[in-house]
Amino acid sequence: MEDGFSRAPFPPSLSNPFEPFGTDTLGRDLLSLIVLGTKDTLILVLLITVIRYAVAIPLALSAIKQKGPTFWLLTSWNSVFSALPTIFSAVILMNLPFVIFAENRLIIVILILALIEVGRVSYLIQQEGFMLSNELFVEAGITIGNSQLGLYWRYYLPALLPSIITNFFLDLGKVMLLIGQLGIFSIFIEQSWIQLANVSGELQNSSYNWASILGESRGTLRRAPWITFFPALAITFTIISFYFIGEGLRAHFTRRQ
């Protein structure tokens, strides 16, 4: 308290004012910010994962015989991005100048985060599909004259679907973790260039997703640790939830087999 006035950030309080998560440095209720950011965060995670699987599944099916240009593309994609931790690849690509200052930065960043792990996802599906190639029901499908597209649609996809669904939910958690890690490095997915003087300016966060709230709290970790703790708690809870859903689905599909 200075000059008879209290200045934000304010710690969590269950009395008047009721602010169980405390406030940020601008005096905004942290619980309200996290609730407000829930929609943006979950849509972001879902979009990235859906795009990743929308690209990975056709690529894996087209490379199922382990030969041809698509198999080379798939293995190369997997090898290049498996050489580095995903967070490093994301940081490097998101900090390219044309990405930082792009008008459509949000779309570009979503595509980057989705495509980084397409090789890994596609390779896993392709390997499972390749093992199915020698199964009797697939050979029977070939014998009765199914086209390659018919084989994918009637035999491979139904057999691979339980694994794809399970891994999709596990990947939702991985994407959530990746976005949280970017927040720790204060790399914002949505940001705007703010002109401060004639020739200077700075990039500022323009979103309320949880990773952005986490990233903005770096400078306040010692004097206001609750600003970091509660967004990190929300991210952790979401990752664990996706993990349990994925593992539950895996157990369910295993029992049915």
Task: Provide a descriptive summary of the structure in words.
By secondary structure, this protein is mainly α. The protein is 66% helix and 4% strand. Strands 1-2 form a two-stranded antiparallel ribbon. α9 packs antiparallel against α10. The longest helix is centred in the middle third of the chain and has 37 residues. The relative contact order is 0.14.
What's a quick, concise take on this entry?
This protein is mainly α and 257 residues long. It has helices at residues 30-62, 69-82, 86-94, 97-100, 105-115, 118-132, 136-143, 148-184, 210-216, 226-256; strands at residues 191-195, 201-205.
How far do the termini sit from each other? 65 Å
- List the uncertain runs: none
Secondary structure category = mainly alpha
Strand content: under 5%
Overall 3D shape: elongated
Major beta sheet, strand line-up: 1-2
Number of helices: 10
> Helical percent range?
55-70%
Biggest β-sheet strands, sense, barrel: 2 strands, antiparallel
User: Cα-atom Rg, whole angstroms?
Assistant: 23 Å
Average pLDDT for all residues: 89
List keywords for this structure.
single chain; 257 residues; mainly alpha; two-stranded antiparallel ribbon; 10 helices; 66% helix
Helix and strand layout, with pairings?
Elements: H1 30-62, H2 69-82, H3 86-94, H4 97-100, H5 105-115, H6 118-132, H7 136-143, H8 148-184, E1 191-195, E2 201-205, H9 210-216, H10 226-256
Antiparallel strand pairs: 1-2
